[in-house]
């Protein structure tokens, strides 16, 4: 499967395996999951669902505010995910992210990862329900009534 990434997510996998800071963002419902596997004494790896940033510079500033005890990240991997949240697991992307978290040695971060994933699924379902029910959406072209 290509999941919107050409021949697959293999290229994304390569970057994730070397990245310390990642953000997977979901344009369909305006949220991101930020994964920062950097750590030091008293400051474990971080996984958090946050609103989507306007730019990488904004995201880097947000990470610096969330993690003042760590230096500003040198770089960040930003992955737009246009598919369903569950497809992150079937594509193997979520497994690669979890593997990076495991490498940090903080088991609480693994729990945070599962909570973040569940939160993303809930947000996506809420957005789909609003779409179906017409909440927060307007019809662009209505069928003429006779």
Search tags:
146 residues, alpha+beta, 44% helix
Please state the overall shape, judged from the principal axes of the Cα atoms: elongated
| Uncertain parts | 1-7
> What structural category do the secondary elements indicate?
alpha+beta
How many domain units?
A: 1
Helix/strand layout:
Elements: H1 10-18, E1 21-26, E2 31-36, E3 46-51, H2 56-66, E4 77-80, H3 87-91, H4 93-104, H5 107-133
Parallel strand pairs: 1-4
Antiparallel strand pairs: 1-2, 2-3
Helix pairs in contact: 1-4
What would your notes on this structure say?
This protein is of the alpha+beta class and 146 residues long. It has one domain. Helices cover 44% and strands 15% of the residues. The protein has 5 helices and 4 strands; from the N terminus they run αβββαβααα. It has helices at residues 10-18, 56-66, 87-91, 93-104, 107-133, and strands at 21-26, 31-36, 46-51, 77-80. It has a 4-stranded mixed sheet, with helices on both faces. A hairpin with a 4-residue loop joins strand 1 and strand 2 (31-36). Mean pLDDT is 85; it is low at 1-7.
């Amino acid at each position: 499967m290509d999941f919107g990434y050409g021949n697959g997510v293999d290229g994304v996998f390569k970057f994730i395996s070397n990245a310390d800071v990642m953000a997977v963002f979901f344009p369909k419902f305006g949220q991101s999951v930020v994964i920062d596997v950097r750590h030091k004494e008293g400051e474990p790896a971080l996984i958090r669902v946050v609103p989507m940033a306007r730019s990488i510079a904004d995201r880097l500033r947000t990470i610096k505010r969330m993690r003042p005890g760590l230096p500003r990240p040198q770089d960040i991997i930003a992955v737009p995910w246009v598919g369903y949240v569950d497809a992150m697991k079937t594509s193997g992307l979520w497994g690669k992210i979890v593997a990076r978290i495991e490498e940090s040695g903080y088991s609480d971060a693994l729990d945070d990862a599962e909570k973040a994933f569940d939160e993303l699924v809930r947000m996506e379902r809420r957005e789909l329900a609003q779409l179906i029910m017409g909440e927060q959406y307007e019809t662009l072209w209505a069928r003429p009534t006779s």
